[in-house]
Amino acid sequence: MLNDSKAKTTILLLVADQLVRAVMREALEREGYFVQATGDLGVAVDALKEITPDLLITRTHVANMSGHDAARYLRSRSPRMRVLIVGGLMKDERLEYRESLEHFEVFPKPYGADQFLAKVKEVLDAPR
């Protein structure tokens, strides 16, 4: 049985790599989240006309821009959306400070599906 709160939770997944996007989407949907997935920033912008995501999940790089810049742009169109940037960020105080200014969560590699799903839940459950 799906958790009703998860079934009402909408996630916008912006990941360029098709295989990574498919694996992440499958894991999230298996947990009961509604997922709008794309690898293209323009499609993500268009999706915001149809959905109001609770969470944006993006990688550290999207096409020709950083995931941070893409997240900032998308959040300007959906201000209440939480942001989780996943990927290969190294531990660096400068990066952590930059992300904290925008109230973005950062989740560096390596991680498995269980850790990823736990981080998604943590971000969604955190107080605003």
Task: Describe the overall structure.
The strands form 2 sheets. The chain has a 5-stranded parallel beta sheet, sandwiched between helices. Strands 4-5 form a two-stranded antiparallel sheet. It has 6 helices and 7 strands. It has a single domain, classed as Response regulator (Rossmann fold), CATH 3.40.50.2300. 45% of the residues lie in helices and 23% in strands. The model has no long low-confidence stretch (mean pLDDT 85). It has 128 residues and is of the alpha/beta class. The relative contact order is 0.16.
CATH superfamily: Response regulator
* CATH topology term: Rossmann fold
Report the radius of gyration as a whole number of Å.
14 Å
How many separate structural domains?
1
SS element count, helices: 6
CATH secondary-structure class = Alpha Beta
Reading side by side through the largest sheet, how are the strands ordered? 2-1-3-6-7
**What is the typical, i.e. mean, pLDDT?**
85
SS elements, strand count = 7
The arrangement of helices and strands along the chain is: HEHEHEEEHEHEH
Uncertain regions: pLDDT < 50 for 5+ in a row? Answer: none
Largest sheet: 5 strands, parallel
List keywords for this structure.
128 residues, alpha/beta, Rossmann fold, 5-stranded parallel β-sheet, two-stranded antiparallel sheet, 6 helices
